[in-house]
């Protein structure tokens, strides 16, 4: 069966993300927060919550980490679909993979703000023979 889990930030961080890792510049807000665009989520709702970088973070980077995922195989593939918005031409969004036997984080996807100021959607498929975080 499908073990898909939706992560919508309506009440707090979702189960897939480390609950205590929001100090790194990410804030949970919606389009009514008076913090500038985006003024709605990817469905056009101005009351739905999403994560946003605080304005103090313009010059540096901030990380969001998932909890530990189990290894993938033919039966258990991992697909992560996410919606993103880039409002700065200089910003880059990267998805990294950290396997438990490795210290290094492998960059598996990235995009920079060429088509900014609109919601985009992306799906990545992850293969790992050991436990990993994203």
Automatic annotation (TrEMBL):
Pfam families: MAM
SUPFAM superfamilies referenced in this protein's UniProt entry, alphabetically: Concanavalin A-like lectins/glucanases (SSF49899)
MAM domain boundaries: 5-134
InterPro entries, per database record: ConA-like_dom_sf (IPR013320), MAM_dom (IPR000998), MAM_domain-containing (IPR051560)
GO cellular component: membrane
Protein name, per record: MALR1 protein
Organism: Balaeniceps rex
Name of encoding gene: Malrd1_0
